[in-house]
Model the fold of this input.
Amino acid sequence: MDGKFFTASEAATFAKADEGHLANLRSQKRGCRFFKLGRKVLYDKQDFENWVRSSPVLTIDSLKAER
Done:
């Protein structure tokens, strides 16, 4: 995972998600923005990391910790 971009496979590994799920999001024009070079899909690492961190699910325990 060196360089400025994640491949679709590397992005899925980073997010602990299924590569097919990311493909579904792309086809629906949802999720993180991406670049296509021929058939290759690339995600800017910083954009992808920000996207993953942008919508945390708040739990009761995490709300208690904020107090």
About this structure: The chain is about 50% helix and 15% strand. The radius of gyration is 14 Å. Strands lie at 5-7, 35-37, 40-44. Residues 57 and 63 are 10 Å apart (CA to CA).
